[in-house]
Amino acid sequence: MPVTAYDLTGRTAFVTGAASGIGRASALLLAEAGATVHCADCDTEGLRETATLIEDRGGTVRTHSLDVTDRTLLRQALTSCERLDALAAIAGIMHRSPVLETRDEDLDRVLNVNFKGVLYACQEAARLMIARGTRGSIVTMASGAVDTGGPGLLCYGAAKAAVVQLTKTLATEVGRYGIRVNAVAPGWIRTPMTDRHDGESQTHTESAMARMSPLRRVGEPENIAHAVLHLVCDASAFTTGQILRPNGGVAMPW
Known about the structure:
The protein is of the alpha/beta class. It contains 8 helices and 7 strands, in the order βαβαβαβαβααβααβ. It is 43% helix and 13% strand. The mean pLDDT is 93.
């Protein structure tokens, strides 16, 4: 496959969760590949920092301060794009609690952001691509938690499992329009979201996660950004309904 398959010059990508972590890394890489990147997040300061990083590297960026659970704001932001070739629905939150201690409000909050926020973005982006006749690419963010589970991950894992089902179902429904839909299911990635605040040191947690990987390390946001780029660009033109697992080998499902 020629290198030009990763060239996004003249295309536009919309990235949610772009203020930090995997979202920021993905926005930076898509811009580096030549795309005009629309960055969305509720963290206005982080969003501004991402935009500055993109501009400092010579990229083109637009920002949208919004909450992904607000469908109206998402629709307005997506519609404002002169063209829309790709969506990377990355925004998400982390919550840990034992099953027997999980409250309704915990489950609702995580499902609202991690599933409904992705669903809304996918629906609005797909509708726009269909209306404009764009053969686009949609990338959702799942998690290695759907393959491995883990104590305290009921809310988070359930939402991410729903994202996997959304990805596969939507792929079967919009493929006729030339729109591809795929998910990325990362392993443990060093981001602000995975930083623990429950008394267990980040170093201890990362060491434990690294020992589970054949590569003996945890991932970096850039590792996942490259997976997003691959699924957005022409190098994956015959790939849809798939779950790409950059997880360091922690899980190896069929």
